[in-house]
Amino acid sequence: MKLYLAAVMAAVVAATASAQQAPKPAEGAKLPVGVIDVDVLVRDSAAGKEAMVRLKKMQDEKVAQRKKLSDEIEGLQKQLSTQRATLSDSKISELQKQIEDKSVDLKRFDDDAQQALQEAQRKELDGLEKQIMPIIKEVGQEMKLILIFNKFQSGLVYADDSTEITDVVLRRFNTRVTTPATPAK
Length: 185
Description:
This protein is mainly alpha-helical. The protein has one domain (2-176). The protein has helices spanning 2-21, 38-44, 46-83, 89-142, 166-176; strands at 33-36, 147-150. A two-stranded parallel ribbon has the order 1-2. The radius of gyration is 26 Å and the shape is rod-shaped. The relative contact order is 0.23.
């Protein structure tokens, strides 16, 4: 996820800058590190919920369009199977060609729909990332953190609960960010 990469890059830059300026922590002292759960931010934030509603609506529309195409193929196949004995060879060939053409159309539709949904998801997540990154940076600076990791997508296998800053970021994100009501395309 792009948010993860951006967070890691920001953390590395911040850590490098801080490491050059900040004194080393005393032995036994905890490093100023925080973790956020991006999935929680997307799932529980008002902006994330709105983005997911837009994506779900788009997906539902694609499913309905696919069903219509699939029903057309099924109707042609049924017509061919029930009327085969009474149809001329040319009419049978014509129906088979229509079924083949509609099947190709369905395959193209599936590919296009998948690409469109992935693009819409990318745009939605990019929009959320642009809104949330300044808040993450601000919280990190206030808490004097030198690193912030995306919890479960960073290779992190353990994090003490004291490093968890998702709730702080989520509350701030929900109070500051207003989302446009534009549907994903």
